[in-house]
Design a protein that fits this description.
alpha/beta
């Protein structure tokens, strides 16, 4: 059994074309690993393949020795791998608090509320906006909600795809600091980026 998040020779196709070809990487607990690449290089397709949204053609994605390929996305998350896709995809018509609670559906109500509290400790900016419709938040705040959702599922590994895209440098700095805190708490982080400067900060 291999500890960590281990991807081996994964191939992912979209529209009948292979866009991720024989990729391998390892992410260790409590560390940040950066995957760099230009726009259109297949980074987001790799994330979707790891998260169960796209079924890889071949290859392996293992979390502490447990095979994730073939699992539905909600089962991948329940196994301990949470992905924050590009574009801070949140439930825009729901309130901030309902977005966070929905992400903890696999927990008991008490455990979900505890996990939400921990996410709000990391992003106190959201605490006075809990009843606000998530779609009316700024881009940076929506990204905080998206990261918060991932954290509420209590992952052992987190994938953050294009965290900095379209956001002001001061907000990017805030999110980078949050990822640093998440990793310091023992969670392994895979940061997918096209901007080298963001990755190098971590």
């Amino acid at each position: 059994m291999t500890d960590g998040l281990v991807v081996e020779a994964i191939r992912v196709a979209r529209g009948g074309r292979v866009v991720v070809d024989e990729v391998g990487l390892t992410v260790r607990a409590g560390e940040v690993t950066a995957l760099l690449g230009a726009n259109g290089a297949g980074k987001s397709s790799l994330v979707l393949g790891m998260a169960g949204v796209l079924r890889p053609i071949s290859g392996s994605v293992q979390l502490d020795g447990r095979e994730l390929v073939g699992m539905a996305p909600h089962k991948v998350r329940a196994a301990g791998l949470a992905a924050v896709p590009e574009g801070h995809r949140i439930l825009t018509d729901l309130s901030v608090i309902d977005n966070l609670l929905a992400a903890g559906a696999m927990h008991s109500r008490a455990d979900a509320e505890t996990a939400v509290g921990e996410a709000l400790d990391l992003f106190p900016e959201l605490s006075d906006r809990l009843d606000q419709r998530a779609g009316t938040l700024s881009g940076g705040q929506q990204q905080m909600v998206a990261l918060g959702q991932a954290l509420v599922s209590r992952p052992t590994f987190l994938i953050a795809d294009e965290l900095s895209l379209g956001l002001a440098p001061v907000i990017v700095g805030r999110l980078v600091e949050a990822l640093r805190t998440i990793a310091a708490g023992g969670t392994g982080v895979l940061l997918i980026e096209q901007f080298t400067t963001v990755a190098l900060e971590l």
